[in-house]
């Protein structure tokens, strides 16, 4: 993984900053690696945010998420770290990230993290 | 696209203005063109509004939405601009527009915009 | 259609008027005629009400809804007029009517009307 | 039907009375007889309650519900009477009963009754 | 079953204690034995909690739940006892456990228990 | 149960006997009683037949099936006996009966019986 | 109903008669009247045919099916008669019609009729 | 596990041996133990058979399947061995067993075994 | 539309011509224009083919299908013409095209065309 | 990727070689890289085979499939090559592999390859 994957995130100007509105982005093809077992993890990341001055550019978000492909990282860290990176890049009015991981050992895990400005 | 597609929108008189009620209109056949790639985009637009004095005539709404067929426009602009056009034509008590676009590069986007009188 | 279809509605006494409770009645076989095109419309009507002294008798409700079979009437009028007829007949504590019509020209419409005593 | 079917209901002591928690019991095999037509009715009863000192024993609940098998009784009476019997037997902190009956003449009916201590 | 199955539960440090967030863990392969009939019970346990200083380690949770495999225990006890064990081990800010059991005699049961710090 | 429930079955003349065609009748509200446990059984009966000279009248089929409501009879007997009664009454070119019973003890049973003229 | 509704059916020339191919037309908004009870019936008609020299024009098929709206006719007659009318108008290589009617008295009926040239 | 779990299987006489018919039995609550990892496995077993002189008694089948609860056995052995035991006990005209196991490491396995007399 | 849209189709060499295998390509975003009404049509095209020496390059297929975006063409022509273009470009061992169009006037149409070498 | 990923595949002896039976293995977490765009691809691989003397060990199959994680390879090559590797390792009586890939540019692709001994 590159030193600072968050630098991959690009933004464009929100053309409607006077309005409070919601953008939901669903990424069902997230994959990373479990740091304990070395086995790949798979999940769906759903971002829901109200932009302030900036919106995230979708292709750059895809490249950013792909930077986790071969990185060893736990579920809770994935969710909190990615939210933190997006919040730093977008400074949104509010943002929620729900990460739903596929079953391991018959057990599924979903992590939900919220940022309020 | 014609100079002013909003002029395609026609209205009829709300026969029950003394009552606060809700009309939901689901348009699953919206298509426009991505201004960056030139590729067509596809989505479902769902309007939910409380009419004041005017309701939107459905056939005119269909013609209005078809005026975007070959227009290059981004997701956020589609949703905000169409809401603005409808609000200008109908002056509703409140109106919500949810635009759900089909996946691109494995990523789906929904935009939700609300107008309160 | 008969002069006054609302006269078809029959009621029976609510045996539990001291309790606030909810009756939901789902009628997926509603059909009327579009006054503009002369084409039949089809929809599902869902009534949700809290009875006061009277409940609607189901067979009479069916006959009442069938009186619209060959009547030309718009979506908004269907929903508001039927709610008004039911409210007049039942004097319920509250009543909601959701009318969901099948797609026309690729567009579906749902109308939701609420009465509060 | 026996004189007093409610006597079939048995309870056991709630082992966790200091905690407010919820038990949901779903009975999709309820059947009784329509008193007007003599035809059988079918429905799903869903009980949701917060026990106080007593919980309902499931096998006794099944026997109690079976006592309605050949009894002529209307939808509203089924729902209100069964809730009353359960409330009398359990004295719960709160209890909701939703009864969903299968379509008759193309029309489905659901009745929802709530008891608060 | 071992004397104290709760000792099987292991935790790791919550790396984001300054943030209120939610972890949902879905375990569809729970099984125990009915103490009255000796027959196996099957259910899905869904934990939803906000960690404080500790998160539950998933493999240890699996081993803990497996310790009930041949234990005779009623639905209400399963749900309340397991919540109590998790609360003792994790001291979460809040935790909910929903246990959904498969039908017995045509009747399904769900138990929902909540702990607030 | 009446002595000879099959006498309840009524037929009407097939108006299209020169054509081989198929009538499927789905009856999801069948109920009888288990002769061993005395508990009610519930199932869906699906008849698929090619009429020869006679078709079954639907209301009489309903009354015939209701005659099993309080009769003690095993799954295999239900399916074979009912097929035999229908075959005797209709003399169809061919007939299939699929009986799907709801779970008991976590186990569901379907029985499929076919008659060829 | 008009004297000869089949005269409503219009055809257009099959542009690809040298190829055996299949056209499926699904009409979920069929309604007629039960001649015994006078109550409306509702169903979905699905036509599957291989055209020879002629294809059915869809708008004319819709008008033809609407001619049954207030006609009293039994399920088996609907299906056989409509197939006969279509076969007479189109002379297809083969045609199947499946008519699926909504439940009456808890019982659903599907009729399947096939024509081979 | 008992020495010879197949001895748990009981049969009753097929009352309709002159007819070739099919009994399907669906058991979604099968569980055993993986001999390699010691972890529990879960699956659905679906039996489909044509009885000759004997049918399997359902309660005895349940007890027989429960005898695998704490036994270490691989997927292929489960399916083949259970089919063999049933075939020995019932001598059916034909029998199929489909065993569908829940995912392990993101991979699901189904095994299908058929016996023809 | 360009003069000869079929020229947009590009192929690549089948690396496994010694094996008969099947490629299925599902294109849910097809749109063209009805030549009679001028209204847009929408459908899903599903290609299923066994390649001989050539496979279709997916991006070129997308561009080819987009060439129909503003072309007036009937359902049957779409399906037969597109199959013909693909067959000419790929010379497959066999190819099937199923085109499923969204409802118009409450009626859906699917066209299935097959080519055998 | 290692030089020879097929060497990762391990087998165990089929304990029931005298019987023709079917093992289906569903792997929904396959991922590789598109050699043209460098973007990750995602798909579900479903193996269906009749073992002869050898069965594939599931954990080794998982490791083998993971060896494609960062390899650039086209859909058709994935499916044919993986089938070839499995056939070489298992020498099955017959084997089918269906590979279903997620949409790219609004288009989904499934490839089905069959080997017969």
Write a structural description.
Chains A, B, C, D, E, F, G, H, I, J: This is NADPH-dependent 7-cyano-7-deazaguanine reductase. Chains A, B, C, D, E, F, G, H, I, J: Pfam families: QueF. Chains A, B, C, D, E, F, G, H, I, J: Substrate binds at residues 56-58, 75-76. The structure is a homodecamer of 117-residue chains. With 117 residues, chain A is α+β, with helices and mostly antiparallel strands. The first copy, chain A, has a single domain (5-116), classed as 2-Layer Sandwich (GTP Cyclohydrolase I, domain 2). The first copy, chain A, has 2 helices and 6 strands, in the order ββββααββ. Chain A has helices at 58-66, 75-90, and strands at residues 11-13, 22-33, 40-50, 54-56, 94-104, 107-116. In chain A, strands 2-3-5-6 form a 4-stranded antiparallel sheet, covered by helices on one side. In chain A, a hairpin with a 6-residue loop joins strand 2 (22-33) and strand 3 (40-50).
List the main descriptive attributes of the protein structure presented here.
homodecamer; 117 residues; GTP Cyclohydrolase I, domain 2; four-stranded antiparallel β-sheet; two-stranded antiparallel ribbon; 2 helices; globular; QueF (chains A, B, C, D, E, F, G, H, I, J); queuosine biosynthesis (chains A, B, C, D, E, F, G, H, I, J); NADPH-dependent 7-cyano-7-deazaguanine reductase (chains A, B, C, D, E, F, G, H, I, J); NADPH_dep_7-cyano-7-deazaG_red (chains A, B, C, D, E, F, G, H, I, J); preQ1 synthase activity (chains A, B, C, D, E, F, G, H, I, J)
């Amino acid at each position: 993984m590159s030193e600072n994957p968050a630098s991959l995130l690009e933004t464009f100007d929100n053309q409607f900053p006077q309005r409070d509105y919601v953008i939901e982005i669903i990424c069902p093809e997230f994959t990373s690696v479990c740091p304990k077992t070395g086995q790949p993890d798979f999940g769906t990341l759903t971002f829901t945010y109200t932009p302030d001055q900036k919106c995230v550019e979708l292709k750059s978000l895809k490249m950013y998420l792909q930077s986790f492909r071969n990185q060893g990282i736990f579920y809770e860290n994935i969710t909190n770290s990615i939210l933190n990176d997006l919040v730093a890049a977008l400074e949104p009015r509010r943002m929620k990230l729900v990460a739903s991981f596929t079953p391991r050992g018959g057990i599924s895990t979903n992590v939900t993290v919220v940022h309020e400005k």
